[in-house]
Every structure is written in structure tokens, then in C-alpha cells.
Amino acid sequence: MTQHAVPIDPHETLYLPMRRRFMSEYVQTPEGTSELRIYYGLKEISIEEADLHSFGENLLKQDEFMAGMATRWSNGEPYPWERVKELLEQLLSENILSREPPKQVQQTEYHKHVMEFEARRPAPTEPLWWNPDTEGVLRKLVGRPLELAFLEAMLPVHRVAHAALDAEGRHIGENNVFPDAMRMRMETEWRMCPYPGSRFRDDTLMNVTALKSMSKHWKPTLQAVLLLREAFLRRYPLMADGQWRLGDLHAFSCAVLALPTLMLLRGKDPIPNGELDPVLSSVFRVTDGVRMVAIYLMFLPEQPMPYETPMNPSQLLHLTERDNHFLSLRGVCAGPPHMVDEFFATMLDGKPMAGEPLPEPKWVAEIPAAIDYGLRGLQLYSLQFTLWAHMCHAFEKIRAAVLQAEGVEGTGWGRLRKRIEADWEVIKPTRQHTEVQREWAKARYVEMYDRAQRGLRGFTEEKLQNIADVFSPPKDAVHTQALAELRALLRERATAPAGARPELTDDVAEALAEYLTLERAALGALETVQREVNVLTQRQHPDRHFTNLDLSIHHRLRFATVGVLPYLLNVFRDELGIAIESHVGEVKVTSVAPVPAASAAA
Q1: What is the pLDDT of residue 447?
Q2: Among 79, 196, 289, 526, which residue has the fewest nearby CB atoms (within 10 Å)?
Q3: What is the pLDDT of residue 189?
């Protein structure tokens, strides 16, 4: 019999080994009642009964207690022992309570596993960096080159600088470098997190090396945030009550990240890799956390927080703790609570720095261009991810067709059906398999795309482009020709099984052709915005069109990462030998040798 299965005796001592990890809030239910919610890492305790609220409040205060004493945690008459016993046994079964006193350890099994994986993983021994050799780096990573002047159309601007090294020899993205194949091995000091809240003594440790660097540059980091904040708010004023719009906070975070990124990637006099001021890498790291929280909050339809949602420092901290944003698979946030509070107050409220003012940094003149670069990056990001939402809808339509007929294993139809189902399972964790999530996401991208344009220098209403217009293209002659070619090839290679509707094959062709028309429109818009980025960064724009194969490099770089999406056209190339290359003005369909064993996410 396990320890948990043994009934609790009122005289035994119980322990809350991670009490400092608890956080709580009262929430108004749709029925108008008050509910106490207690968050314990990834677990949530909901106490709906009003007379048990005091039980929950007292639980939060205990490091250890005699089980029978919990009957006295009532505001009135003591609770019956049988009722308390049931509650305590539930908490024990969830490993929130323990019969054993906590053991003080400095390393966890999970961290050992992470370090073992780190020692085995392939890692570059020399720095890999985009500027000036984007083509060489991508040829090494995915076997397909791409010009530097198309980089932002393929890779979101907020991730572009991750792999760069600062003057301290550390990656700007530290352990979160994307793509991971560019991350070198770095000597790093790890320590169990002592801070109260969601990260207290978590199985993943905190990066003390990064914390020491951040602490050393803390005051100039805050100064940098204040300078960038002042410039950003001249374009995007706060709400009437002095709070931020959630979407503007996300845009500001992207603008902050854009400053060092622009300085590293501009065509004229870029900062060489390995020479970036550590202040700017510190600003990048601490601000990127806010960006991730903001974008997460905007994309939850079950907790609607659109662009205009007000946000202040206390709300941001509460949501960061509640939704476990201080945690990650490789380590927890290393920032002490007082530094987190000070950063949020500086970033959102403009809290002045204490002490003597610092000299103005040399890069101040770069701020206007950096904000424009960040806003252009948001346009590109909105276009890319709106397209992925449409792609998932195309997956859904094709899946609906292929599921209507079983298909013999090994036939074209059978391979197509099996692959679509496999890829659908990959899509599910992103929630893009649901229309609710896709439509909510597309609405947020509309807001981001529109708002980003309005903050650009020189913007006028006449220049405004509606993203909905981009994704409402006419079915032109290119569409008609592509549809005809796809119908012919699919009828030859993926005929609907005997007994099924013959039109099922044409349904697949039509869904694929519709997606290709949307993709061409997106490629054209991405190329147009990228051209503006190249003017801003003083780079020569390529003398060719940006293609779907260029854009699909993004999927290949994200292989095996959280939130990866399979690329729809790979399904038809791998399973049926139908290769498709397109740009804004052309779709080229060719026959290649199929590779049925290809991974669903390759």
C-alpha cells in the first residue's frame, strides 16, 4: 500500500514542501459567486464552497501542521474531521501535501537529464551568424540558401538576434537561441530557485551566469528601457487612465528587441558579431520575457484579452505568475522579485532611475529606425502567422475529404490519408485545428498589422493596407491553371478508392489550389514589406521574388520545437511526388520522386 493510500490520522504531521510556490486569487464565476483559486506550479485548486475559503486561505500559511488542526481553519464552527480528511487526502494524492519533511537538494533529476542532453546534442564549435553569410548558415542548417535581404520575411524579427554573441561572449538569446542548431555550448552556473512563487525550487534551475551579467548592467539596462519607452510613447500614447494597451505593450517589447537586432543586421556598418554592448543584450533578454507573456495573453480565446485590453505592472506580474511564464523547459527566470518589480515599474509606469543620471548612450540616435524596424517586423509576423492559420484550415478541408474513404495502405490515397492524419496530430497542440482559435488569432493579427502601420514614420491613412484584403485574393488565371494541373496529377496519383465519391480527389485539389492562391498573396505582401525593411537597413533588395520554399524554411527551423506546424505542401511532395514552387505571380507544379517515409513535420 502506498503512503498516499494510507488514511490520514488527525494526529499525524503533514508538510507543504513547496508552500512558497503557491499564489491565489478570488475569481467571479459566471453565476455571480466568488471562487478561490490556488495555483501551485502547473496545478490549480478551485474552491467553490464559500465556507471552505478560509480553509484554503489558512492552507497557504502552513509549512507543516497536525492534520486535525485543519478542522479549526473555519471562520465559524470547526469543520467535521471527515470533511477535512477528504480534502487533505485529495491534496496528498496530488503531491501538494507530503507525509515526509522536505529535503534540501541543490540539483534535480530533471536538470541532470537536461545537462546530459546538452552534453550529447550537436552544437556548433564556431559562431554561426546571419550577417553577412545568411546563405551559408542556412545551407548548413537546412540545405537551402536564402539571402540576408529576405531574412525577416522568413524569420520573425524578434527571433533574428538570438544567436548573436555579445561582448561577453554570450548568446543574446542565452539558452533560448532560435534556431537551436545555432546555439553553442556555454559554461553556465545553475542554481535552485529560492524565490517565492511559481518558480520556487522548480525542477528546472535558474541561470546564475545570466543573472550576474544582468545585475552588473542593471542601471544602464533600465536607462535604455526608459529611453526607448519615451520614444515609443510619442507614437503610441498610453490610455486615458495611464495604462498600456496589451497590444501596444507587445509592440513596444518588439521595438526594444529590434534595437540591437537592427544594429547587428543593417547593411552599412553593422556591429560585428561578438562586439554588441552587453547592456543591449541584457535589455533584449529581460524584455523578451514581457513579449512572450503579452503575445500569449492575446491569443487565448477562452480568456479574451484583445489588443485594447488595459495592462499595468501588478496585473502583468500576477498573470506572469499565474500562467507560469517564469518557467521554461530549460530553466526558470533568474531575476529576483525586486528586480522583476523594478523592471515592470520602469517599463510600464516609467519609474525614474534612482541615483545620479547616466551619460546618454551612443546608440540613442538609432532608436527611431529601430522602432520602425520592430513595427515592420510585426507586419511580417502578422502576415506569416495569418497564412499559417489559413494553412491549417486547408489541412482541415483536405482531411474532411480524405476521411470519407479508407483507402488501401500503400496506395496514393492511403498514403495521403495517413500523412494528413499524422500532421493533424502535430497541429492539435497549437489549437489551430479549431476554427475558434484560428478566427481569434486572425482577428489579433488584423489588430497588430493595422496598429503597426500607424506608428511608422511618415504614415498617412492613404498608405494603410488592410490585412483582410491581402487574404481575399481573386481566383486569377494562375489559380485556374494550378487547379487544372493539380486535378490531373491527383486523379492519377491519389484516386478516390472504389465505392467512394470520385469527386473526393477534386475536393482535395480545390482545397490545395485555394490555399496556393492565398499563399501567393501573402508572399507578395511579405515581399513588399521586406523591401521596406531593406530600405531601412540599407541592404540591396534581391533581384528575384520571395517564394514559398523560402518561407517554408521557417517550418524546417522549427522542427521538433513547441508549436511547430507541418508545411502542407510537403505532404504532397513526400507522399505523391507533387512538388509545388510559387511566388506572387506564378505556381510551378512538377513531378518528383515521392518519399513516403518522410517525417510528418519535416
Answers
A1: 97
A2: 196
A3: 95
Is pLDDT above 90 for 82? yes
DSSP secondary-structure letter at 588?
E
Which residues lie below 8 Å from residue 388, measured CB to CB, with a gap of 6+?
A: 432, 565
The CA–CA distances, whole Å, from 147 to 63, 126, 182, 325, 543 equal: 58, 21, 17, 35, 11
Region 63-90: mean pLDDT is 95
- The single-letter code of the amino acid at 419 is R
Contact 200, 20 (CB under 8 A): yes
**By the 8 A CB rule, do 420 and 402 touch?**
yes
pLDDT single digits (tens) 245-268 = 999 999 999 999 999 999 999 999
Cβ distance 8 to 91 under 8 Å? no
Per-residue pLDDT reduced to its tens digit, 507-540? 999 999 999 999 999 999 999 999 999 999 999 9
Beta pairing partners, 38: 24, 45
C-alpha cell at 147: 539571402
Q: Which residues contact 213 (CB under 8 A, 6 or more apart)?
A: 168, 170, 278, 282
Enter the pTM of the model: 0.91
Locus of grid cell 528587441: 257
Euclidean distance between CA atoms 334 and 212, whole angstroms: 10
Grid cell, residue 209, equals 551566469
Nearest to 106 by CA among 1, 190, 14, 213: 190
CB–CB of 282/215 below 8 Å? no
Q: Which of 492, 297, 293 is nearest to 411 (CA)?
A: 492
Residue 409 pLDDT > 90: no
CB under 8 A, 24+ apart: contacts of 185-194 = 185/118, 185/123, 190/107, 190/111, 190/331, 191/106, 192/105, 192/106, 192/107, 192/108, 193/332, 193/334
